[in-house]
Amino acid sequence: MKNKQGEPSFDYESMFKNNRGKKEKVFHTLYLMYKGHFKNIVLSFFFFIIKHSPVWVIPIVTANMINIASEPEQHNTSELWINLAVVLVVIGQNILSQVAHVSFLSKASRHVEAALRSTMVRRLQHLSISYHSDLRSGRLQSKVLRDVENIETLSKQFMFTFSAALTNVAVAIGVTAYKNGWVALFFILVIPVALLLVFGFKKSLQTKNRDFRTEIETMSGQVAETVTMIPVTRAHGLEDLEIKKTDHTLKQLKGKGYRLDMAEALFGASGWVVFQSFQMFCLIFTALLAYNGEIMVGDIAMYQAYFTSILMSVNQIINVFPQLAKGYESVISVSEVLFSDEDAEYQGKKHLSWLNGEYSFENVHFSYKGTSKHVLNNFNLSVKPGESIAFVGESGAGKSTVLSMVIGFYRPTEGRIVLDGTPFEELDMKKYRQKLAVVPQNTVLFSGTIRENIAYGVENVSEEEIQRVVKMANLQDVISEMPEGLDTRIGEHGGKLSGGQRQRIAIARALIRNPEVILLDEATSALDNESEYRVQQAIQELIRGRTTFIVAHRLSTIRDADRIVVMKAGKCVEVGTYEELMEKQGHFHKLKQMQN
Prior knowledge:
Largest sheet: 6 strands, mixed
Mean pLDDT: 78
Number of helices: 21
Oligomer: single chain
């Protein structure tokens, strides 16, 4: 897929979707990432060959000059100047060819880095709520930030260092073989030794990198959770407990990081000792050949330079191997998201242009993944268009789960939900949810202005419309107290506002969407009496004429609901108006008595 400029699009999701089940094939994953960038990679490699040519030409020129100087009777000084001119031209071209090499490679790697992060975010948006419930947000952040960075490093090391080193070895051995087959054979012996060294350390490095990566993700998740819990921790004087938990995780991380560092150090030192020893053997070997008259004296310098180049290349591969192992682990980590088959619960395509709001729950059963205990058990309910339905009951009765199922976050394990005669399985959930307004118990605001929070997700909102919903949500007094009115920044998660102010902003955000269905989950549970009164006024304005689902613990707040559904153990045990249920003196009456 390409954009208008002819460049590959940032959306890799469909490409990865067509390759599910291949998450263990790391190089196949890398291939998918760089598909469409092979032209830039080939051009980058071409300019690398040109820019790297001095490494191969200088030893030949050096040998020539030594041989010319050691046998003056067979040569003249003009040959020295010719060799100098050649080497200066080869050296001088390095500037332009290096810039071209890096330019083409950077175009590919930077695009892939941005595209991969974009695809990760897209994929996270499309994965099921169950998937997100199973993973800490900090772990997902680690995958998007740290692991993608490691993959970019892997790509660059593979293209900059690994491929360059292999090319260097091939050219050096090729030139040497052309000059002297015995010396080339000696050079070739280095390769199996290097391979044995790499394979000897491969499993240990991979295991320690995997352990370290997993511990980093755990730490990232714990830090995110700790920061979120700071108000609760402080309120209960539990700072030392949180510090102790974090210190324990850091101790684990330190231990695994230390073991990884020591494995990498032993790997690098072993390589250096082995190859330095080989270089000394190369020197004595070529010196003996020159001593016996089989090669010229200047050739010793050339072979020594080429062997040094081979050793440096092999050493580069060895030194970069830990980075490759790290990147390998990160590809697997990212693949867990890219190739996950835990897609959103519904994949329907039907678009309802207008919602009447007639819902039907038909023998609905539901249990969360990993447990056989049913949260909803043979739940049946019919909701008329424009009707307001309140759910009450003890904690764990299944009230909020019903709301989550209306949103489409969860799918019944048995039974079905029907909207305006259309089963949920057939609905385009994205289009459907655009017609909903959800006011949760814990109001979610972002660190922008009040105006931005109210108009979130709605384009081309006029000032008149903003002012209308501000008035409807009883926000005038809040706006008037703010230093910059609607354009006042409210801090992360609306931290500069009270609970009532945040909830009224959430209601204004719901109103401006002009929703066709409303969901209110404990929208006034944490408010004082005055704030609750104001919020209730805003809610009455919000739900007028719209199908509304309300979850409430304060039974006094749902007196005006068309029907109240009393839930117990995932079942609907009573249904009726406030007055009807009070007259029955059943479950609802008992709940009301307990609150008096």
